[in-house]
Amino acid sequence: MRRSWVVQIGGADDIDRLRRAGRIGLRFGEVGNVRDLTVQQIEQAIGSVHSGPAAPLRSALLRFTGDMHPGDLVITPNAGGHELWFSVIGGPYEYSAEPDVAQHHHSREAEWLGCLDRSTAWLQHKLQYIDTPAMVVELTGTEWWFEKLSSATLLAERPPRPVAPPKAPRKPRASAPAAPPPPPKPPEHLLCAGQCGLQWRTAVLIDGLCPDCR
Predict the structure, then answer these.
(1) How far apart are CA 132 and CA 126, in angstroms?
(2) In 35-188, at which residue ranges do the beta strands (DSSP E only) sit?
(3) First to last CA, the chain
(4) Consecutive 10-residue runs of the chain (214 residues): their mean pLDDT?
């Protein structure tokens, strides 16, 4: 009986390299051929590289290597994009110290069917299961998935994301005209222009002359 899985691989670059190679794979370069290792040895190898709990990662690797089989459906989200990729496993688990796709030491043959935008209507109630943080998760309703995909239009390449138009530059705010400086106050006293040589209140000067000098 075929099954369906979510496999979190990474971003668009990893997905594209695996698609071109016709593979589906996981990294775990610190772990050798799973068929030659015990569960404890796998956890120890993972723990030598990862600081968090090793058990969830070990479980994900063992699901990929032992529980998945040819004919199973794999859904792979693009971690940095807006699409979901679909593939069907085509072969058994293989380990390579020098893999065809760099760093993906644990892999299987896969037929990549294409991708769908996450906003596709019939996917909406499934996203909560697809967006799981776990690396490998089994989904239910495998035949439902195959039926939906058989009538869907899958894209062979990543859909281009719409580019937002550039924002119009802000117009500089017109500054209010500077107020003219206030006129200087006239002096209260001025020197008489006559012969007295005295200062007088400006109010009493006529043509610069005090009453005595006029």
Answers:
(1) 11
(2) 73-77, 83-89, 94-95, 106-117, 136-139
(3) 127
(4) 94 95 96 96 95 94 97 94 96 96 96 96 95 94 97 88 67 70 72 66 71 68
CA 128 to chain centre: 19
Q: Count Cβ atoms below 10 Å from residue 56 Cβ, excluding itself.
A: 15
Q: What is the pTM of this model?
A: 0.74
Please check whether residue 148 is in contact with residue 122, taking contact to mean a CB–CB distance below 8 angstroms: yes
Q: For residue 104, what are its two tokens?
A: 């993906």
Asked if residues 135 and 110 have their Cβ atoms less than 8 Å apart, the reply is: no
Q: CA angle, corner 163, sides to 160 and 168, nearest 5?
A: 170
pLDDT tens digits, residue range 137-153? Answer: 999 999 999 999 999 99
Residue 14 to residue 3: CA distance in whole angstroms: 23
Structure tokens at 100: 């065809």
- CA nearest 110: which of 24, 48, 170? 24
32 contact partners, CB below 8 Å, separation of at least 6: 45, 95, 97
Q: Which two tokens stand for residue 153?
A: 């239009």
Amino acid at 189: H
**Interacting residues of 101 by C-beta distance below 8 A, sequence separation 6+:** 17, 18, 21, 23, 25, 107
Q: Which of 62, 23, 65 is nearest to 43 (CA)?
A: 62
